[in-house]
Design brief:
- Keywords: ATP-binding, Nucleotide-binding.
- It comes from Dyella thiooxydans.
- With 315 residues, the chain is of the alpha/beta class.
- It has eleven helices and 14 strands.
- The strands form three sheets. The protein has a six-stranded mixed sheet with strand order 6-7-8-3-9-10, with helices on both faces. A four-stranded antiparallel sheet has the order 2-1-4-5. A four-stranded antiparallel sheet has the order 12-13-11-14, with helices on both faces.
- A hairpin with a 2-residue loop joins strand 12 and strand 13.
- The protein is elongated and about 75 Å long.
C-alpha cells in the first residue's frame, strides 16, 4: 500500500456569494482506513466532499486525491472513486437487477465481467432474492445495501459516503458498518460524513468541522484522551435544578442531562479546586449534588471543539 495519503488538501475554501461554506481546510486522509467527517448540518461536510470528488470547483486551495489534481483531473479521478449520497439516488421505478445493470454500464464495467460482478454484489449485500423487486418498494436498509452495491460496482480505490445511514434503523446501521470494514480490509479507503457519535466512534480517524472550519483532527482515542480530567458526572436528586445552577458557572464549557445525572465538561486550565467550587455553588443553590470524574467521550470532544466557536459568534 502506498505511503502517500489518499487525500491531501491544503487551504481548501469555498464561498457562495458572501457565505464562507468551507474555510481554509487542511486535510490528510490515510489509505485503507475509515476517515470520519463529524459535524452538524451546515458545517461544510457535504460541500467539502463534493469538492474532493470534483463535483464542485473550490474558490481556493489545493486538492490531490489518489495522486490526481482536482478539479483538473476530475474526469480521470471519477473512474477510481465511488460516491454514495445521503438520499437514495437510484431509480425507484427500476428493479434491483435493472439498477445494478444500468450502473455497471454507466461505470464502464466490461461486458465479460459485468454479469459475474452483479452476481457477486447481490450475494455479498443480500440482494439476490430481490432481483426483480422495484427499488422504490424496498425498506430503508435494503435501499442502503443496493446503493452501496452500486457505489462499489467498479471496485473503487476510494469511497465517499455522505451521511449514508441517516434514514435506517440501528440494526441496519450495524450491518452497513460491517460491510464498510470489509471494504477497508480489501484496501479501499473510506471517507464517511456523519453527525452521529456512535458512527464517529467506529472510524479509524476523525475530522470535526464547524461552520466550515476544521476544528479537530485525530484518532477517537487521541481526541478523547486530550480531554482527560475535564469531564464529570454530577449526581443530584434534582438534576434540572442542578443544571440551571451550573450552566453559567465559571469554567463550565457544557452541561447536559444523561438519565438521572448530568454530564459536565470543563474549560481548559481548571485547577484542582474546580469540582469543589462547583459543589459549593450547588450547596448555595440548595442542591446536595456531588461531582465525580468520568472518562471523556466523543460527544465531549465535539462540544469542546465547537463550543468556543459558538462563544466567538455570540460575542
Amino acid at each position: 500500500m502506498s505511503e502517500a495519503p489518499a487525500i491531501h488538501v491544503r487551504g481548501l475554501t469555498k464561498r457562495f456569494g458572501q457565505l464562507l461554506a468551507v474555510d481554509h481546510v487542511d486535510l490528510d486522509v490515510p489509505r485503507g482506513r475509515v476517515y470520519g467527517f463529524l459535524g452538524p448540518n451546515g458545517s461544510g461536510k457535504s460541500t467539502t466532499i463534493r469538492m474532493l470528488c470534483g463535483l464542485l470547483t473550490p474558490t481556493d486551495g489545493d486538492i490531490e486525491v489518489l495522486g490526481l489534481r482536482v478539479p483538473q483531473q476530475a474526469e480521470e479521478l471519477r473512474r477510481r472513486i465511488g460516491y454514495m449520497t445521503q438520499s437514495f439516488s437510484l431509480f425507484t421505478d427500476l428493479t434491483v437487477g435493472e439498477n445494478l445493470d444500468f450502473i455497471a454500464e454507466i461505470l464502464g464495467v466490461p461486458r465479460e465481467r459485468k454479469r459475474a460482478r452483479i452476481a457477486e454484489l447481490m450475494d455479498r449485500y443480500r440482494l439476490a432474492d430481490r432481483r426483480d423487486q422495484l427499488a422504490g418498494t424496498m425498506s430503508g436498509g435494503q435501499k442502503q445495501r443496493l446503493a452501496l452495491a452500486c457505489a462499489v460496482m467498479h471496485e473503487p480505490e476510494l469511497l465517499f459516503l455522505d451521511e449514508p445511514t441517516s434514514a435506517v434503523d440501528p440494526e441496519s446501521r450495524r450491518e452497513f458498518w460491517e460491510a464498510l470494514f470489509e471494504l477497508t480490509d480489501a484496501g479501499t479507503t473510506l471517507l464517511v460524513s456523519t453527525h452521529l457519535m456512535d458512527e464517529a466512534e467506529r472510524c479509524h480517524r476523525l475530522a470535526i468541522l464547524d461552520r466550515g472550519r476544521l476544528v479537530a483532527d485525530g484518532t477517537p482515542g487521541a481526541l478523547t484522551g486530550a480531554l482527560e480530567g475535564r469531564t464529570y458526572l454530577v449526581e443530584s436528586d434534582d438534576p434540572r435544578r442542578a443544571q440551571r445552577a451550573l450552566v453559567d458557572a465559571p469554567g463550565v464549557l457544557g452541561i447536559a442531562q444523561v438519565g438521572h445525572a448530568l454530564r459536565l465538561l470543563a474549560d481548559e486550565g481548571q485547577g484542582d479546586g474546580f469540582a469543589a467550587a462547583l459543589e459549593r455553588r450547588l450547596d448555595g443553590a440548595g442542591q446536595a449534588a456531588r461531582l465525580h470524574p468520568t472518562p471523556p467521550n466523543l460527544e465531549d470532544v465535539f462540544v469542546a471543539a465547537t463550543r468556543p466557536g459558538e462563544r466567538e459568534r455570540a460575542a
